[in-house]
Amino acid sequence: MVVWAVTHHDTLQELLADPRVGKNPQLWTTFREGRLPEGWPLTTFVTVPGMITADGEDHRRLRGLVTQAFTPRRTAALQPAIEARATALLDRMAGLQGPFDLREHYAYPLPMQVIGELLGLPPKQQDELHELSDTLVSSSATPEAAVAAQRALFALLASVVAAKRAEPGDDLTTDLIAAREDDDRLSESELVGTLLLMLVAGHETTLNLITNAVRALLAHPDQLRLVLDGAVPWSAAVEETLRYDSPVGQFPLRYAVEDIPVGGAVIRRGEALLASYAAAGRDGAHVPDADRFDVTRQPNRHLSFGHGPHFCLGSGLARLEAETALRLLFERHPALALADGPAPEPIGSFVSNSVRTLRVT
Ligand code: HEM
């Protein structure tokens, strides 16, 4: 199997918007010929029925069903709820003794609660959903674990759909059920697939963004000072984190619809491409001094929310959550510091890019 990692900013930007590149797995020779091994860890990514595996008209239909949930107005209206949730988490953290894991106690629950409310997920099942979703994005799970997580996640989300059918709510799941039942715009598997996508995309990434931003700011006190003194806004720290330490390391997969010459090479029809967002953010040919964390960069153009027809639907929400989380955290704890000890371990995924824990004092 040949997979091309597209790591240069300009090449990636071009290919993400190139009609000769598609996302339907039927375009992939390895998949079409049934050569994908059973339990391959990224199977869900490439087969989940929904907008990330669709092209053209199909993609527009599936994406259109959820775009209304993320208009700038609907997103901005979530600000008070995000602030209230972040404040409640900070209150709870105040009771913790000694160094603690900021990822577990703050960066994870905030986006999970927000997407949970948007989708109408039962709060009691959110931790379980998160664990299953972690296995899905881990890219190093055993075949058995990957298959089991995929099945359990589909089953759990199908039960959420059944519950919402019985008792509709004011949430995206109820809206999607209406689109399925009233005018048949969505199949049952697309309905569950879309929920799965929204759940994973809506929290794993923002969790990484908040973790990576706090880590970078604490490791670069001069940059944190610039924000705390009001010389640059929190939004600039968020954009620089997106570029410097992209929450999505690499996104699988895209496929060449025809032979595509790139630089000196040719991506052959039917071969797969990996969008290497983290590498593109550090491309020295696009950003001067790319390995330096610098919150004053202007302009700060990165591809970390994607580009072209699959550009992230939740970028406004992610930015709002991250800015709010950072502002409230550092207002409450201006002397926050990284705890002593060995450097944190990466999470062991080439899709999801962050550290397993972020111990702070
Ligand atoms: C797509 C990044 C947060 C929903 C994408 C893509 C990237 C991305 C890189 C393009 C994937 C590709 O095709 O190559 C991020 C980052 C986030 C974030 C870095 C947070 C820091 C969110 C949130 C939501 C969301 C909060 C929803 C609540 C989606 C959806 C797509 C997507 C639905 C698929 C769009 C399509 O295929 O048309 N995101 N995302 N994302 N994102 Fe996000």
UniProtKB/TrEMBL annotation:
InterPro entries: Cyt_P450, Cyt_P450_B, Cyt_P450_CS, Cyt_P450_sf. It comes from the Bacteria. Keywords: Heme, Iron, Metal-binding, Monooxygenase, Oxidoreductase. SUPFAM superfamilies: Cytochrome P450. The keyword Heme applies. Belongs to the cytochrome P450 family. This is Cytochrome P450. It comes from Kitasatospora putterlickiae.
